[in-house]
Amino acid sequence: YTNFLLHWIDFERLHDWEKSGGRLEAVERPTEVTEWINNGRYLPRCKGPNVRGNFLEQFPKKLHRWWAVLQSSTPLNHNSPGNCWTALDKYGINGWFSIVVCVKWWGEGLKSITGNDLRLGTEKWLAMVRELTEALEALKRHLEKTEG
Fold first, then answer.
1. How many domains are contained in the chain?
2. Least crowded by CB within 10 Å, which of 29, 66, 68, 78?
3. Environment class of residue 44 by beta-carbon count within 10 Å: exposed (0-12), middle (13-18) or buried (19+)?
């Protein structure tokens, strides 16, 4: 998870910490993210979703569906021709920040479960973190190559 955050920081740094760098596609975006955005994102106005209870039953599936949409037109999708990173090259508050927050919420939700559910949930969470980290690494390589 720390590695993922470090790659995200590097990605934002490549874009000079600009506040607005486009928006990630909203199709299949988890409703929790939409509500978080609409409520102002930050405390005290917005507290984010309740990550206890049945949150982990649906949220990971929602995040996976959104991620599938986001990467569908990029080189990460092996069926996609070309080298177009436009769909994922979104920085600032409307970009990868929303994905980072989703990963945080999912991880926070894991604190409310135990036993085998916790083990399986953590494995799935770590797999998603690895996938997102690999995507950020590839995107950063592309950006560094095109800038250099």
1. 1
2. 78
3. exposed
